[in-house]
């Protein structure tokens, strides 16, 4: 192999090494998440998605919200409120835990995965995979107990989006809680 042929191989090795390092920097699935502490009302302050048309036009965007409840062992009830192009909409989902993994699903409703990537119970990052086999979209949600976030909190969200190659889709939502408050408990 001449030097000219070696270069692409080295480059590939470098890309793989950096890629796996990023994976390792990512928070592990929260196996020891305390779901009682994670339960309750969350504002969704920012979103990053590779789904087409996930967010409405700029002038229609508002804060989202999620209400998380333990339904029964291994089941979560999750309500989402989002402003779409049709206006404020809420959806209720019952999600089941996937065996021993810290991921919840509802295949019938097209939720291929709901997992908490990281949380300190006052804010957190949630990954939601929507769609069915082979055709899923990825959306990351920045959860916060309060309607605003510190710069560092937001930076952490953006860092995770970058590691998962979703940074180009990061959108910070305008501070209008009128849709979010429709699902206040
Ligand atoms: C955010 O929350 C604070 C404290 O609860 C409240 O005073 C403020 O009006 C809220 N802002 C919005 C935009 O909802």
UniProtKB/TrEMBL annotation:
- UniProt cross-references to Gene3D superfamilies, sorted A to Z: 2.40.128.20
| One Pfam family named in its UniProt record | Lipocalin
Q: Which UniProt keywords apply?
A: Signal
- What molecular functions are annotated in GO for this chain? small molecule binding
Q: Where is the secretion signal located?
A: 1-17
InterPro entries found in the cross-reference section: Calycin, Lipocalin, Lipocalin_CS, Lipocln_cytosolic_FA-bd_dom
Q: What top-level branch of life does the organism fall under?
A: Eukaryota
Task: Outline the extent of the Lipocalin/cytosolic fatty-acid binding domain.
Answer: 39-166
Q: Which family does it belong to?
A: Belongs to the calycin superfamily. Lipocalin family.
Q: Know the name of this protein?
A: Lipocalin 10
């Amino acid at each position: 192999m001449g030097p000219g042929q070696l270069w692409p191989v080295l480059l590939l090795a470098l890309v793989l090494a950096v890629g796996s390092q990023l994976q390792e920097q990512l928070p592990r699935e929260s196996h020891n998440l305390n779901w009682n502490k994670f339960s309750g009302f969350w504002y969704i302050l920012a979103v990053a998605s590779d789904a087409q048309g996930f967010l409405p036009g700029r002038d229609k965007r508002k804060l989202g919200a999620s209400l998380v409840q333990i339904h029964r062992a291994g089941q979560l009830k999750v309500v989402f409120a989002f402003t779409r192009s049709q206006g404020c909409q809420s959806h209720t989902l019952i999600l089941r835990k996937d065996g021993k993994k810290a991921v919840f699903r509802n295949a019938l409703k097209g939720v291929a995965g709901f997992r908490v990537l990281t949380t300190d119970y006052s804010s957190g990052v949630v990954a939601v995979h929507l769609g069915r086999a082979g055709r899923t979209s990825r959306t990351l949600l920045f959860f916060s107990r309060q309607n605003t976030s510190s710069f560092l909190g937001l930076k952490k969200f953006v860092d995770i989006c970058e590691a998962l190659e979703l940074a180009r889709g990061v959108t910070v939502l305008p501070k209008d809680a009128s849709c979010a408050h429709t699902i206040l408990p």
